[in-house]
């Protein structure tokens, strides 16, 4: 293990700035759910059922908006992507608490749809500014930061809502999110290699080493072509040519799928004359980056969302049986603390581990929580599960950044976030069905079983992607 990797990363002021701004800018998003729930359930007196619908609508907006905002990020850059989001959150969240319930649902959907794509910007920036082993370290560090935000953010939102009012809390969320977006617009972190200036990127690893890590991390095995980069690995064909470096072969320019897409957009009349087959081919070209191996990582992300939320809900239900639901923070502290330790250890490792392997270990290590009783025993057993949490998320994010070329990485990270959001949205109600009909222990078993099933699906998708490549 090489713990000096963290020092190398943090010596770069660009990486320090990106991680710090990402840390602060994530707080409003994590606090929005709990403050919205308290507003609908207590301030409006509509109960937690209606509050659940409101948060589900917001989550749906985020899941739909993340890939779209990521695609805009790829094409327009950080500042042009964030400008409409900054305006939207600054206007919508202060207005939402004063709307009738039906209009409130429309407002929170739009707020989720236009939420700041913090995840895509931070991960895309880290993917550009790091290489090789340092990229694994960077994603591990960001996973730890993200988990810390998810621990503190909801509690901070609840404090603001309790001390002031839920309407004030939602207003603070909107204005602070807008402020974070403005800071990101000013700092304008790079999302393309062509935007890098100043000191060299930490870890001067070659494209071949990046490809080797992609093969190794995705659990693919097989020979590595030393002349290929991560973009080539994605499709097995020629690397995508970006606008940053014009390429010419003989007298004919190399035309990328992106160039074809842009030409189609600039000529709407011509596009309308395309046949159904041509339209389908164009659509396939737009999603050429979505290989079986990338889809496998998305299955892992969905499994992680289901397991995380399902485990949390089951722990709350188990402690509620003994009247200790107020002490659930102790279990979460042990769980998240172990995750931070696991993330630090994984980031210092010299070798990458497949996200499928880590997700399987994460699932199996969660099962003992269904076999024990008592607050402190449950907290102690949760440490085993926590050790694999941050490494799983770091490995999955790093794999996406290696398999998808820079030109599409924002969109790919958006879909990654949507997959995890969808898993989180499904995890709570589905685990709740088993908790209500059987027992809290059944909630753990359900979450583990579904996550292992998705790992199997991911393995099949990865194998199919390897055969096609």
TrEMBL record:
<feature type="transmembrane region" description="Helical">
    <location>
        <begin position="143"/>
        <end position="161"/>
    </location>
</feature>
<feature type="transmembrane region" description="Helical">
    <location>
        <begin position="327"/>
        <end position="346"/>
    </location>
</feature>
<feature type="transmembrane region" description="Helical">
    <location>
        <begin position="167"/>
        <end position="186"/>
    </location>
</feature>
<dbReference type="Pfam" id="PF07690">
    <property type="entry name" value="MFS_1"/>
</dbReference>
<feature type="transmembrane region" description="Helical">
    <location>
        <begin position="353"/>
        <end position="371"/>
    </location>
</feature>
<feature type="transmembrane region" description="Helical">
    <location>
        <begin position="101"/>
        <end position="122"/>
    </location>
</feature>
<feature type="transmembrane region" description="Helical">
    <location>
        <begin position="46"/>
        <end position="65"/>
    </location>
</feature>
<keyword id="KW-1133">Transmembrane helix</keyword>
<protein>
    <submittedName>
        <fullName>MFS transporter</fullName>
    </submittedName>
</protein>
<dbReference type="InterPro" id="IPR020846">
    <property type="entry name" value="MFS_dom"/>
</dbReference>
<feature type="transmembrane region" description="Helical">
    <location>
        <begin position="441"/>
        <end position="463"/>
    </location>
</feature>
<feature type="transmembrane region" description="Helical">
    <location>
        <begin position="415"/>
        <end position="435"/>
    </location>
</feature>
<dbReference type="InterPro" id="IPR036259">
    <property type="entry name" value="MFS_trans_sf"/>
</dbReference>
<feature type="transmembrane region" description="Helical">
    <location>
        <begin position="377"/>
        <end position="403"/>
    </location>
</feature>
<dbReference type="InterPro" id="IPR011701">
    <property type="entry name" value="MFS"/>
</dbReference>
<feature type="transmembrane region" description="Helical">
    <location>
        <begin position="17"/>
        <end position="40"/>
    </location>
</feature>
<feature type="domain" description="Major facilitator superfamily (MFS) profile">
    <location>
        <begin position="280"/>
        <end position="469"/>
    </location>
</feature>
<feature type="transmembrane region" description="Helical">
    <location>
        <begin position="287"/>
        <end position="307"/>
    </location>
</feature>
<feature type="transmembrane region" description="Helical">
    <location>
        <begin position="77"/>
        <end position="95"/>
    </location>
</feature>
<keyword id="KW-0472">Membrane</keyword>
<keyword id="KW-0812">Transmembrane</keyword>
